[in-house]
Specification:
By secondary structure, this protein is mainly α. It is built from 6 helices and 3 strands; from the N terminus they run αβααββααα. A hairpin with a 2-residue loop joins strand 2 and strand 3. Helix 2 packs across helix 3. The chain is elongated, with a radius of gyration of 19 Å.
């Protein structure tokens, strides 16, 4: 599977870092909605654990604040989540696709893009 497995809180922290590029722990904490916002200590502990897992790194210091940046690309983390979701359904993508259709979340353009990708993969297979 691509990318590391991220907890919900780690993913929320990464969303801030992907959007900003770099941020201090205080900036990350302030990016959370005020209602239900994790404490500074929770964000700090989680960010330091993410640093140990090589998900983020310190890039410098501004005053007393360490600045962090993501080491994991957003696309890699998203692909990991999709792979995990598929695994929960025994690898059967039909169930997920049908749900998206019924929920009105799958557009015709999405289907056309998927068809183009399938054709591209088929051409690659034939060339090998």
């Amino acid at each position: 599977m691509p990318g590391p497995k991220l907890s919900k809180l780690e993913l929320q922290i990464m969303d801030t870092l992907w959007a900003r590029g770099k941020a201090s722990i205080r900036e990350i904490q302030q990016a959370f909605p005020e209602k239900g916002r994790p404490s500074y200590g929770t964000i700090q502990t989680t960010t330091y654990r993410m640093e140990a897992k090589k998900i983020v790194r310190r890039t410098g210091k501004m005053g007393n604040f360490h600045i962090f940046e993501p080491l994991v690309a957003q696309n890699a983390a998203q692909l990991r989540l999709v792979d995990e979701l598929l695994a929960m359904f025994g690898g059967r993508s039909q169930l997920i696709v049908m749900h998206l259709v019924k929920a009105g979340k799958l557009r015709l353009e999405d289907v056309k893009e998927a068809e183009r990708e399938l054709k591209r993969l088929e051409r690659e297979d034939k060339q090998q």
